[in-house]
Each structure stands twice: as C-alpha cells, then as structure tokens.
Protein 1
Amino acid sequence: MQHSAFKFLAAALAVAAPSVDALLRFSCSSLVVERLDPLVFPGASQSPHLHQFVGGNMLNITMDPARHDIGSEATCTTCTFSEDFSNYWTAVLFFRARNGSFHRVPQIPNIGFDGARNGGMTVYYTPSYNNQKVTAFQKGFRMIVGNPFYRTAAEAAKNRQLTFTCLQDLSTRTGETADMPKQPCPAGIMANVRFPTCWNGKDLDSADHSSHVAYPSSGTFESGGPCPASHPVKIPQLFLETIWDTRKFNNKADWPTDGSQPFVWSYGDYTGYGTHADYVFGWKGDSLQRAMDANCDISCSQLKSQSISQGSQCTQSQKVAEPIDGWLSELPGAMQITGPQPAPSTDGNTGGGSGGGATPTTPGGCQSAKWQQCGGNGFTGCKTCASGTTCKYQNDWYSQCQ
Ligand SMILES: *[C@@H]1O[C@H](CO)[C@@H](O)[C@H](O)[C@H]1NC(C)=O
Ligand SMILES: *[C@@H]1O[C@H](CO)[C@@H](O)[C@H](O)[C@H]1NC(C)=O
C-alpha cells in the first residue's frame, strides 16, 4: 500500500541520518480511552490522568509479567501486525474554552491508515540506521519515556525526540518542537514520541520505568551512535505518532485572550514539556525479533497481519466510568493544571479558571479525595493524609486519600 509514500515519509523522518535501512510502520486503532495506568499504578482502579490506549486486549488494571504472558494470552489486538499484543499509551489532549470548560480533542488516522477506529496511533520499530543487529524487547519488558511533571524546556531536554508537529497538511514532517505549537495548526497536531534505544541488558523494568534504558552516549540513534557502557544493548527504536484533530478548535476568537494556545494535556499541562508515553511489550513469541532480524521494511512476510478494519474490531469498554466527552467542567480525575497557563480571559469569563495558579495540594499533603499531584519522581512529601481520611494509594508520583 503506497509503499513509495511510506518510503518518502521514512526518508523525511531520517533527517540528517545516513539512511534508514528498514522499519516497521503500522496502524493501531484505539483500544480504549480511560483513566487507568497499569504500569505506574498497577492495581489502582483509577489513575490520576486520562490515557488513550492501543494494542492488545490484555490491557488491565494489573499486568503483572510474572502472572501473564501477554503474547500468548491476549486474544485480539488493534494493531495491523496481529502478533503484536503490546500496549502503547499516551495522555489525552483537551481544548479549553474561554469559559473554562474542557473538550476532548479527537484523534484521526495517519496517512494510509484510514478507518483506524478513533485514529489510534502509528507505531514504528526501526532496527537501526546502519544495519547493526538489534535485540528485540523481551517478554515482560516495559518502559516509559517523558515525565508528566516537566514544564520547562530545560527539564524536557533530559529526554530527546519527544516533539510536536504543527500539521499544515497530513504529510507535514518538519518543524518539530518540544513544546506545543503556539498557532492554530490547519490539519491538527501530531505528537511524536521516540523511546531510548539502549538497554542495560538485564532489567525488564525499573523503579521509575525509565532508567533501564538510555540514549546513545554520543551522536544519535539515527547517526549510529554507540550505546553507553551502562546500557550496552541496542534495542529497536520504538516511535509513536498520534494525530490530534484540533481543526474544530482552531478559531482564534475562541482562544485565550492573552494570545496563548488553548490546548491542555490530561495531566494538567499547557506547555507540552510533560509529554510522555508508556509501553508494555506483548509481541507473541519471538515474532518481533524475527521481524528485526529480517530487516522488514513496512510490510513483513515474517509476521502475521490483519486489516485495519479487523484491528478496529478489537476494543475494550471503559473500566473507569466517567464522562470524557462533551463539555466538561474539569479534566477527568479533577486533574489540576500546573505550570504556565493562559491568563484569565478579559472577556468576563474565567479563562484560566480553576487551574489558574491553584495550588494542587493543600499544605500538609493529600487532604482531598482527589488524586494529588505530589511533585515528581522521587517526591517524598504528601505521604500523610488529613485526619479522618486514609491513604488508599501512593507512590512516588501521586497519592490518594479518602
Ligand atoms: C482484568 O482483571 C480482572 C480482575 O483482576 C479480571 O476479572 C478480568 O478478567 C481481567 N480482564 C482482562 C481483559 O484480562
Ligand atoms: C463554554 O464554552 C463552549 C465553547 O464556546 C460552549 O460550547 C459551552 O457550552 C460553554 N459552557 C458553559 C458551561 O458555558
């Protein structure tokens, strides 16, 4: 299907790279949009912020690799490579109107992937740009890239290649920025997430779900840069694209009166510097390794595949019952907005509204029944609940008192 168009895109993506030998590029329809996070909050019946999930139907509130072999237990996947039962997820984009109400921004399919239910994502696995052998992810592997607490360019620079493309049309692949586009994007906003490409070779996961992987020690993945001694094993570059269809929110008369942009992520971020994505590996058997070894390019005779419409039939119902569509008075989970945000609108409406500079936690820690955004990775406060409440869930990122 339009192989030359894909080749063109692949070349466009490989800016400043020697050459891309081969890559898997495929569509995964939406599986479910809900406020769960089996990686950061295993066992918690709700997570603090809303996610959009694609991939296999083993997605659940716990996905303990010791108890489940995802690749053999899952029965369907939204991805067109039908042995890929992995789950991939990101946060969800919302438009915020001048009156303070929020509306979820729909997703649309990428070029060539028409019919992908609710847009879903485009997934890439690139073995290498210089024909070296890569070690595919192993059973039980999971990782996160990005950090929902980052709100500055300096913080975001700790990660590489987490960007946004302001789509002039669906084939725009230039002008990636680390923060949200400042002007209306005629064809939507594409969120691009490239994961690190070096692994420590031992750990399937780590406490922060990130430190078992790393970036090349010099150069880049695309330039064939070497992996650091601490993380010597080259793994495929996993790359996710999600297209947020902002078109019906592009009227500047509806944008904040201070001239800033109106889109806010489900984790309470207008800047985009907190962009992040999660991956739970679930390829059946050694199928991914076989595809990497064969240097499959777009299509792959070594892999079983299904049509986009078959993939779109795989779906899950929301386990967290709450409204996520229509105009909402707050972000799902009552997620508070932190960091830079629009000034209150000057036309008499609330604009910045409840998020406008509000302190997410009352002094002394988690004193509300809502999820509290307690700081960030390694945060040690907010571990005690107000009298009369008990802590139902806590980790280094969040806690919840009821
Ligand atoms: C999810 O987990 C629950 C309980 O832990 C179980 O009853 C349910 O069958 C699981 N769903 C899937 C799709 O595995
Ligand atoms: C807020 O503004 C949006 C967009 O103009 C409108 O559709 C919605 O009804 C308004 N909500 C309230 C509560 O006024």
Protein 2
Amino acid sequence: MASKLIDVREYTVRAHKRQIHTRVFNFVCKECNEATKRETFGPRPLYCETCRPPQVPKKSQPTAHKAKPRPMSYKSDTDLN
Ligand SMILES: [Zn+2]
C-alpha cells in the first residue's frame, strides 16, 4: 500500500449545533467512595449526585464593580477674560 505524508492545514470549525447524548457512567465517587452511577453529557463524573448535586449553580461570576465613566464638568481656575 502506497503512502505519503500530506500537510493538513489548520482550520477552525464554524459554530454549529450538535446533538449530544448523555451516558450513564458507573463509577466510584471520589468523595464518599460509594459505587454509584450518574448520567452526564460530558466526561466521566468524579462525584455522585449526593456529593455534587446536578443543579450546582455555575461559578458565580464576581461582577467587578467597575465605576462607570461619568461625564464630569471641569472648572478651570483661570478666568479667560
Ligand atoms: Zn459521593
């Protein structure tokens, strides 16, 4: 079988929607060491639903309290007369 090396260009995938499916993992929870199973979309979970409830709120993003720029009126000390 003939073979050769070709250059594969780097490319980016356009944003798109993809349907993904959950999988049920059987695993041992890292926290309570109980054999459990859990359905997740992503990788193998580490903790059972008791130790890490599914509806954990996402990281609360600390909203930086930035001072909004405000229009300021400057008074000049010098009179331009
Ligand atoms: Zn657990």
